[in-house]
């Protein structure tokens, strides 16, 4: 058995797999359901204080999975033997993703009760994908700080000033919409809520709407320090550039209209 492990490790190393390869697989094949990162403090509040009403998560985030793999009661392998641990992670991912069972997960049972079983990924993932995902999860924590580096602001100072002047002149507030091109729930809101005539009418009459792709830019009006790494998120800013409210998560038409109406002057 030990010789088999050594041979398998040799084969894995031969492919030259890396965290970046795994991240690419995660973004392309997993991120439509799984968010990549939400602070654990916010995750705890969501599940243990807000009954999942704050974030309305349908699946664990990548950092939740990593915590379960590396630090949770059902952790996988020995971190002192990473060459063997990577094989054990790959084995778990293959078995679970090909036959998903939320009652047989490494994540906390309380959290898993909020989810439904997902379809099998057997036809979606190739052998190399499982290996790359294993490296992604194994090396996630040491790469996390680099991944969440703040991007360049979407606006320069003089551009922000002009937007605030317009808000004052038109007697409007500002909505800053934090989104991402890989965010499933953003696309869902774009299609089912934000594009509706009724929603657009109230928004256009009362707000200046600013959309920010968080993969390319950081938020204006000093909002970055308030950003919880959740897309979608909606920030209400007054004509002085001061944040009045923050609504992280995806919203139905009714709830989003309630947010708009509640924050109108």
List the helices and strands and how they pair.
Layout: H1 2-15, H2 19-29, H3 40-48, H4 62-70, H5 82-98, H6 109-112, H7 127-138, H8 140-147, H9 157-169, E1 173-179, H10 184-194, H11 197-206, E2 207-213, E3 233-237, E4 243-248, H12 253-262
Parallel strand pairs: 1-2
Antiparallel strand pairs: 1-3, 3-4
Account of the 3D structure:
This protein is an alpha+beta fold. It has twelve helices and four strands. The protein has helices at 2-15, 19-29, 40-48, 62-70, 82-98, 109-112, 127-138, 140-147, 157-169, 184-194, 197-206, 253-262; strands spanning 173-179, 207-213, 233-237, 243-248. The chain has a four-stranded mixed sheet. A hairpin with a 5-residue loop joins strand 3 and strand 4 (243-248). Helix 5 packs across helix 7 (127-138) and helix 11 (197-206) runs parallel beside helix 12 (253-262). The radius of gyration is 21 Å and the shape is elongated. Residues 1-15 have low confidence and may be disordered.
Task: Describe the structure using short key phrases.
265 residues, elongated, single chain, 4 strands, alpha+beta, disordered N terminus
């Amino acid at each position: 058995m030990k010789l088999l492990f050594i041979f398998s490790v040799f084969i894995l190393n031969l492919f030259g797999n890396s965290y970046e390869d795994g991240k690419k697989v995660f973004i392309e094949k997993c991120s439509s359901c799984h968010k990549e990162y939400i602070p654990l403090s916010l995750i705890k509040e969501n599940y243990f204080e807000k009954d999942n009403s704050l974030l309305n998560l349908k699946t664990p985030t990548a950092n939740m999975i990593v915590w379960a793999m590396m630090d949770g009661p059902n952790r996988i392998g020995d971190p002192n033997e990473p060459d063997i641990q990577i094989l054990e992670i790959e084995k778990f991912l293959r078995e679970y993703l090909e036959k998903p069972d939320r009652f047989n997960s490494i994540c906390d049972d309380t959290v898993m009760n909020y989810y439904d079983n997902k379809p099998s990924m057997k036809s979606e993932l190739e052998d190399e994908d499982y290996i790359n995902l294993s490296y992604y999860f194994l090396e996630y924590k040491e790469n996390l700080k680099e991944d969440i580096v703040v991007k360049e602001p979407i606006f320069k100072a003089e551009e922000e000033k002009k937007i605030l002047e317009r808000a004052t002149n038109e007697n409007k507030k500002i909505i800053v919409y934090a989104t991402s091109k890989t965010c499933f729930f953003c696309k869902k809101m774009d299609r089912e809520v934000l594009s509706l005539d009724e929603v657009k009418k109230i928004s256009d009459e009362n707000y200046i709407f600013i959309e920010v792709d968080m993969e390319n830019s950081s938020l204006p009006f000093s909002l970055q320090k308030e950003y919880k790494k959740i897309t979608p998120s909606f920030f209400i800013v007054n004509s002085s550039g001061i944040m009045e409210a923050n609504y992280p998560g995806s919203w139905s038409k009714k709830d989003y209209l309630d947010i708009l109406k509640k924050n109108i002057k």
